[in-house]
Description:
The chain folds into 2 domains: 6-21 and 286-381, Alpha-Beta Complex (Aspartate Aminotransferase, domain 1), CATH 3.90.1150; 30-284, 3-Layer(aba) Sandwich (Aspartate Aminotransferase, domain 2). Helix content is 36%, strand content 13%. The protein has 11 helices and 12 strands.
Amino acid sequence: MIPNQRHLFDLPDDVAYLNIAYTAPLLHAAANAGRAAIQAKQNPWTIAATDFFKSVETVRDLFAGLVGCNSDCVAIIPAVSYGIALAAKNLPLKEGQSIVVLHDQFPSNVYSWRNLASQKNAVLKTIPRPVDCDWTAALLDGIDDNTAIVAVSNCHWTDGTLIDLEKIGERCRAKGCALVVDGIQSLGAMPFSIDRVQPDFLVTAAHKWLLGPYSFGFCYVDSKWHQGTGLEENWMNRAESEDFSRLVDYRDDYQKGARRFDMGESSNFILSPIAAVALRQILAWGVENIAETLQAKTDVIAERAEQIGLVVAPRHVRAPHLIGISKPDGFGKELPNLLAQEKVYVSVRGESIRIAPHLYTADKDIDRLFSALQKAIRTSRD
Length: 382
């Protein structure tokens, strides 16, 4: 168990921020790295040609270490939607085959598949929300011989209900279909092993559980797709682009591995140092330790919610770090604003209040949550 880490963040004592699944606060050290990077941009003569590649390779290596892959398999992207579009551009799909997604899946992991299915005269197959919250069983039943692509997450973004990706990966390999994972709501808070899951693509952005900046992310691309086609052509992802004197010797070949899929301006002198500091801190804590610590917090939240008649998913189908709470007769749309008036910050997603604690969450934050929640429920009844 990791002791409370609030001192590493700029969070006032009277704020209960239980909304990292929305976006994360920056670490003090990460914010300082960003300020230093902005200062360097104010003095651009201090930026060497090698800096265009050094910072991005540092953060690429750190992410590779987080998920257990070779850094040659990591592309730098601006958003999850970019990585999903990249997967959709490169994965084969025949007429009549299906792409499997989840009910109420996040739009960034739906639109590209919907467009691809339309282009190929294929089927977008949506797995209905299971009554028992067991997405894994529902998915296993839904993957069949006609499935070409399975595009899912490690937990449902609305309420943290769990998907066992190792079992899904096994089924995909048995059926010969591709697996695309949206990791934005799990990487950094749940252990993930490329070797165990064996996805074709794993996509995430840095600004949630990776504690990093907005508009910066990562895409693992399995080596079988390294000769694929990127979404854009830029000078940096071409071979030997480190030699600025030869940039107009226009090359047909690319940088090694998944670097061919890097977004333009991937070096991003301001955002990449922020992401690097955050990843180093996560690796220092250890993702297994983070998950264990957050599991203890969400267990308390679940118990207290049930004590006042609210509904949570069974523990065995809940992610350790993210929990949804629902009410039999529903919560009003005004609930987040009522809670914010008490300086309690959560999200409403679908029919659930989504509660996302982190290592800065103290017992008093959970007390504040339930005090404000009960007050808001009473107010909505009046």
